[in-house]
Design goal:
Blueprint lengths: L3 E4 L21 H6 L3 E4 L9 H10 L3 E7 L7 H8 L3 E2 L4 E15 L5 E7 L2 E5 L5 E5 L5 E7 L8 E2 L6 H13 L8
Antiparallel strand pairs: 1-6, 2-7, 3-9, 4-10, 5-6, 5-7, 5-8, 5-9
EC number: 1.13.11.54, 1.13.11.53
Main location: membrane
Family: Belongs to the acireductone dioxygenase (ARD) family.
Length: 187
């Protein structure tokens, strides 16, 4: 089953709710690909021996990995961290997350500054490009176990919006003029 994504409503209700528009406006994988979002469906039950995951890591240079459990019982300063994750921001590097258990939402901005909600579940590996405005929250399950991947040493710096002059943001915006609609092999 492929990842699910949709345009969000403008409600300020609990961010853990789906926030579908009425009527629902689903977003196809091709639209996410145009934004630079990459996606793979893997086997989370055998991630330690998964050749496809190993190939992705080698091909893309992800040599650092750790695991993060996000739930009230396992994450210190849970409420504060979840609030920080949900603050709109960019990174200077890609954000790579592989959902091993549970589920949650990554929200990304499209070219027209609309929010797209991406629902990740166990088996979904998602890569957000450097410079894309995004945020993360749990869904109503209140639990997710994520693998975080990095090139080299991990960098945990978030740059809250606005960041239009940040080099990663400029490069991301410039990429639209150079390679709009390039097909991605990840799907």
């Amino acid at each position: 089953m492929a990842i699910e994504a949709w345009f969000m409503d403008e409600s300020d209700e609990d961010p853990r709710l789906p926030h579908h528009r009425n009527p629902k406006e689903l977003v196809p994988l091709d639209h996410l690909a145009e934004l630079g979002v990459l996606y793979w469906r893997l086997n989370p039950k055998d991630y330690e021996n998964d050749q496809q995951l190993r190939n992705i890591r080698e091909t893309r240079g992800y040599n650092y990995m750790d695991l993060l459990n996000i739930c009230p019982e396992k994450l210190e300063n849970y409420e504060e961290k979840l609030k920080n994750f949900y603050t709109e921001h960019i990174h200077a590097d890609e954000e790579i997350r592989y959902c091993l258990e549970g589920s949650g939402y990554f929200d990304v901005r499209d070219k027209n500054d609309r929010w797209i909600r991406i629902w990740i579940k166990a088996g979904d590996l998602i890569i957000l490009p450097a410079g894309i405005y995004h945020r993360f929250t749990l869904d109503t399950s209140n639990y997710v176990k994520l693998m975080r991947l990095f090139m080299g040493e991990p960098v945990w710096i978030s740059y809250n919006r606005p960041q239009e002059d940040h080099p990663a943001r400029k490069e991301y915006i410039e990429s639209f003029t150079k390679k709009v609609g390039v097909a991605l092999e990840a799907h």
